[in-house]
Specification:
The structure is a homodimer.
Chain A (H helix, E strand, L loop, with lengths): L4 H20 L6 E3 L6 E3 L5 E11 L11 H18 L3 E11 L5 H15 L5 E9 L5 E11 L14 E5 L4 H10 L11 H7 L5 H10 L4 E4 L4 H12 L2 E5 L7 H5 L4 H9 L7 E5 L4 H11 L4 E8 L5 E4 L5 E3 L11
Parallel strand pairs in A: 4-5, 9-12
Antiparallel strand pairs in A: 1-2, 3-6, 4-6, 7-10, 7-11, 8-10, 9-11, 12-13
Helix pairs in contact in A: 1-3, 2-3, 2-6, 4-5, 6-10
Chain lengths: 340, 340
């Protein structure tokens, strides 16, 4: 019989998690008190700023438990938070996790979810320092607060794009959305399970190291990670910076994996532009810095950096240039969780 | 027609919250970037340690929406986190809030919940610096991460109680549990709505200022706030400190409000000892410091500090001394969210 949370109880689970953290967890620099008291505590490095972000993943809404392993669910929840820290130029150090769990959740699955957290934190020598567990009647959820540090001069915001800057993007936005579509269709084509697009959805990678390198280089004017889709997050840059942007459809990066799936050309670009949890970066910079930014990124990882357009006056809004030279308005929208 | 989240959407809600924070929120000391980017950032005071805690409240499980106003729900969620920071000797500065909301939640209720957060943060000049909103299919939930600061020497843990110390408790634990019982019975006695015990449940107050004063005084050996009940949290002190404790039933503080309700005497003490979200403090200290700790607390607030027992050897476990002089084992249990 599968052991569930109902069998071991909340305090049993907490003890189990603490043991797991003791075995596999890491003691981050500066940590003075980890799990086990009313609060955790740490001593920040002198002169740095503290960065904090939190993001919540709800089963059925942000992830599909039947299509992802518990390890991947844990990794993905942590990746989305690490991505936020990296997109500001910081490095993650301390994570707090709130879990809402149905009592029929297998204990083994929870171990695996924590394993996923730890796997993503380990490369940064970052650690889990606190959290709580509560019973959920319905969907499981994972809410993570991630704390990092950055030197004051290294912090790069989304609100500082300048008119005339180039707009760059890392990797291939839209691959996660394409992977999700394949995954939902997989009963038809089971051989697709190992497809790279499906991995892009189930095991996304952040570009936090690349983000930090770009931010500390001083070459970029603004940066954001993609979690609301390319249009959605470019829209956030425009709104917060008080600018517009124009992107050129033919310059949008389309991976060979995406070209290979059976989609109309229009659908393909829609997928590149719209809701997709890719955790790539959008960067703006003076055009003379593009090649240097490419070098900075390449030193870390062999990630493509595509120039896809430019920053314009706010009055121009968000536009796309089609192959025939015509310009169309792009609606800046992301993944809106409530709107009818 | 009542406007709900489905009408204004996620981004509409975020804009609304940001406006509310702009109007009523506070810019805390050290804050360098608030709501609106991938992360918030702050510059810690030199030499302090950062304290972090997170706690989650789920509708139907941790609060009953039909018995509490949205403002009180927001206050209570923040109070439980402020209490954790104070119980370690710190002061709260920055809060991040994750909300899981059904799409039929009235927008007015969300405004009120935020109002509750702000009312509790304002006395500390603490502010909301980030968070996220996601759609919940079922119960609403509020998950708060609260960040504070404390001088290194001021931090007081639960793991440092010493054998022979006195055990003190502030206020009247059990009042919130008694209030909840009255509340659930109120169809029978509607006049009870304004009863002080019901306020103890719906509008609990933290003892964070008292906790910080006790911690900085250096007079106490350990401290914890009560969120798992008096036995549960005294049990946490025992476990983490490697000690036992003996409490004397006749020394347990019973408020006149509690004496006034219709309970058997045994039930009354059960209520004082067991699960109750009172956010009072349990303190251990050398017995010669008791009066000085009382003075430290009284300078802040007219709160009763009761000596209820003493710290013993670990092998003695957790015991209660009854009026006839007999000793009984107390099971250290709290509010276990999963156990069958």
């Amino acid at each position: 019989m599968v052991q569930t949370l109902a069998d071991i109880g909340e305090f049993g689970l907490i003890q189990r998690i603490n043991k797991l953290l003791g075995r596999a967890g890491i003691q981050s620099r500066g940590l003075t008190l980890g799990v086990g008291d009313d609060c955790a505590s740490f001593q920040p490095k002198v002169g740095v700023e503290i960065l904090v972000t939190c993001d919540c993943m709800i089963e059925g809404r942000h992830y599909l438990k039947d299509y992802m392993t518990p390890v991947d669910i844990g990794r993905r929840a942590m990746v989305m938070n690490i991505s936020d820290i990296g997109a500001m130029g910081g490095y993650p150090l301390y994570a707090l996790v709130s879990l809402g769990l149905r009592e029929d959740t297998p204990v083994k699955d929870i171990d695996d979810i924590y394993q996923g957290f730890i796997e993503e934190l380990r490369p940064f020598q970052a650690s889990l320092i606190g959290g709580n567990v509560t019973r959920s009647e319905d969907s499981n959820f994972i809410d993570i607060t991630l704390i990092g540090e950055a030197e004051k001069d290294a912090i790069l915001r989304r609100s500082t794009a300048r008119i005339g800057d180039a707009v760059l993007v890392t990797g291939y936005p839209g691959q996660a959305a394409a992977g999700l579509r394949l995954l939902l269709d997989r009963d038809k084509d089971r051989y697709l399970e190992a497809h790279p697009l499906i991995s892009a959805y189930t095991r996304p990678t952040h570009k936090a190291r690349e983000g930090r390198a770009i931010a500390t280089s001083g070459l970029a004017s603004s940066m954001i990670d993609i979690s609301d889709g390319l249009i959605g997050d470019l829209g956030h840059i425009c709104e917060e910076s008080g600018v517009g942007a124009e992107i050129v459809r033919e310059k949008l990066p389309v991976s060979e994996h995406m070209s290979g799936i059976d989609l109309e050309s229009g659908d393909l670009y829609d997928m590149v532009l719209n809701d997709s949890d890719d955790y790539e970066l959008i960067i703006t910079c003076p055009s003379e810095n593009i090649e240097m930014i490419r070098s900075v990124v390449t030193e870390i990882n062999n990630v493509r950096v595509s120039e896809i357009g430019s920053v314009t006056e706010a009055s121009e809004g968000l536009k796309i240039v089609l192959p025939d030279g015509s310009r169309r308005n792009l609606t800046s929208h992301g993944w809106d969780h409530f709107k009818k």
